[in-house]
Structures are given as structure tokens and as C-alpha cells.
Design goal:
about 425 residues, alpha/beta, TIM Barrel, 2 domains, 8-stranded parallel beta barrel, two-stranded parallel sheet, binds D-xylulose, binds cobalt (II) ion, Xylose_isomerase, cytoplasm, magnesium ion binding, Xylose isomerase
Length: about 425
Amino acid sequence: MSYFPQVEKIQFEGKETRNPFAFRHYNAEEVVLGKTMKEHLRFAVAYWHTMTQDGSDPFGMAINERSWFGKSEMETAKNRVEAFFEILEKLGVEYFCFHDVDIAPAGESIEEFMANLDEITDLIKVKMDETGIKLLWNTANMFSHPRFNNGAGSTNDPEVYAYAAAQVKKGLDISKKLNGQNYVFWGGREGYETLLNTDMKFEQDNIARLFKMVIRYAGKIGHKPQFLIEPKPKEPSKHQYDFDAATTMAFIKTYGLEGDFKLNLEANHATLAGHTFEHELRVAREYGALGSIDANQGDMLLGWDTDEFPTNVLDVTLAMYEILENGGIAPGGINFDAKVRRSSFEMEDLLLAHIAGMDTFARGLQAAAKLKEDGFFNELISDRYAKWNGTEIGKSILSDQEDLESLTRYAYAHGDGVKLKSSHIEHVKSRLNDYLV
Ligand code: XUL
Ligand code: CO
């Protein structure tokens, strides 16, 4: 049975096509800088937004039309697997991501939840073997259930900590069963409401303790996916410990986790932290910790995580440039952690929204590749810093030949003669625009 009988597998038809169920820019096999678009982009569909989001908001009830509801929660869960793989195949997307609670009902007890997970992951495995579609990452949802109100790894209650550990252990077992390439930790409630009653250091020590158990268990079962921490500054906790890439790197380094953990960076989380997405990618890249990305975009007029499908070509181009400079994103990928707007409530919007995101990333990739080939940014940067290697004093500082006293002598002798150069930044931005169309 088909959930989208009216839609064939989406094909590349070029930008003149009038067919909405076609790619206008994403051409999977097209070679860009020596690799196919498919190899560069490693797209993934997120189970939660695609299969379980109902379109409700704090002011309105569920609105999304979905045809996979069955007579029981388990029947619905199985129908969702079928529909999900149909979406992946029709889009030609080769990876997917999920939280444990997205795929299987929680049941009445931990035993029932784990048994449901076993049954559904058996079905997912069959579909993966049939289609060749792979698991980019899975994760444990340790933020929705009331027990996690005060955190999971950072909880004030060791019994909640044990429950979280059981969920993570199962997550790793599932990752092994489905050969997950990465495993994600987004600390949805690892933060605090008020410092008045919070022992910040104690809580972060305990999160790190859990991560060390994860590394030991992965070694024990002989399955080591790339572990990723996903920073986010606020929502749901007022303050989240993994605020942004730099803060999360400080945590990773403080606890000696850099050999096993990298970052999963999300565009809307970056902007909530007051950064551009490319800033977050650059920080991670410079630490050698750019693991994977959650592709979406926020709304600059709103202060929360709107998780919109990415359609802004400039932002995506700058993000893709960082990925190209990183030498690619594998074993990570580009996961659409994005949901259709409440006004896009039809089933087919799930396909249209992903096509929009994939086309935008294809354009971003093409533009970024051209910028790289032309040496656009390299030229600007080498010009901007040219004086360092182009003058005796610059070279001398860089080769550590100088100290405060010698530089003071230099400043007294030359300081008033400094000649600054304009950056002509408006001209640069206008030239950058030429790459986007
Ligand atoms: C929440 C978010 C999560 C993580 C996985 O803002 O991005 O969906 O990606 O838990
Ligand atoms: Co995310």
C-alpha cells in the first residue's frame, strides 16, 4: 500500500520545470568539485517532524492530515515505518534520524517500551535491507517525559539518572543493530531554571560521567558510532549547558571527551544563541569537531526555535562553504530537523518541503563550490592579512622574535605612521550576491 500514490519518485527536471514534485537544482549524480551532490550532501529525514508532528501549537489543536493512523498505537507505529520509507525512497534520501519515542509507543512500563522498540526496529531493519537506506543517527528522548523535568544526566535524582542510562543503553543497542553511523545527545533539559538551587558543577560532572559510561559500553558491544553533542542555548531550560559550539567544546575538553565526541550543529540553534550558522560551523571546524548538521532555519522576528525548512540561499551557501572547507561532513550528514508550517497541513507538503530544502542545499553547494574554485574568500583573507607576511615587523612577530619592549621601541619609532586600508565591504557583499543567482 502507498501513502503517496499520486507522487512518483522525485526526479531532477531543472529549473524551468513547472512540476512541483521535481527537483529544480538537486541532481543527485551531478559532480561538483569531484564528488556527486549525493555524496556531498548526505541528506537525512527526521522521523519526529515528518512522522509524529501534528501541527498543533500552544493556541491551536492538531491540524495535519495524516493517513497512517491505525487501530492501536503499535499499528500506527508500523504504518509510520512504511510511510517513512516511502518518503525516503520517493525523495531519493539515503539517511534518516530518530528519537526512541518517535518510532515506538512508550507503553505502560520500561519493559513494554523496550519490547516495542525491538519490534519496530526489526521492521525498520527489514526496510533498510530492502532499500539500502542507512541510519545517520538515533538518540534517546530524555526531555519529553515528566520524569526528566529536572534533567537526565544533570538530574537531582539518581533514579532518573538510572532511567536515562537505560534509555541510552538501548539507544546504543539499536545503533548497533541498525549500524548507526553517528549517535546524538541533545541535552533537552540539561540546564537550569534558576541558579538559586542549582549546583552547576555537580550537574555537568554527572553529564560527563554518563558520556564516559557511553564510551565504555560502546567499546564493550564493539560498536562505536561517531558521538555528537548538539548545542542549543535555550528552550526548554532557561539556560542550557550546551549553549553553543564554543561552550560545548569547553565541556568536551574539560572532561577529556575530544577523542570520541564531535558536534551536531543546528542552524536555528545557532541563531537563538546570537550567532550565524556559519559562525558555529567555523568554531567546530577549527576545533576539528564538525560532526554533522541539523538543517533548518529560524525566523529572525521570533525568539524561539521555529525549525523551518531551509530556503535561504545565502545562509545555506555560507554553511556549505564551511562544510567544503572541512573536507566534507561524512560520517555526518545534513539532517532536515525541520517541520512544515501549520498552514502546510497536507500529506504532500512533507515531500514539497523536503524538495525545497534539498534544492536550496544543492544551490548552496554549487555557489559554495564556485566561491571555493574562484578563491573568493581566500583572496579577501590573504589581502586583509597581507601586511603580516609582507613586512619585516609582521614576519618578526610571527616568528616570535619580538617582545613587549622591542615592540614598544618599534611603536615609538613608527606608530604614528600607520596607514589603514579600507575593506570595501559593501562591494564585497555585492560581488558575493553574484554567486547566489
Ligand atoms: C531540539 C532538537 C532535537 C535534536 C535531537 O531543538 O534539535 O530535535 O536534534 O534531539
Ligand atoms: Co536538532
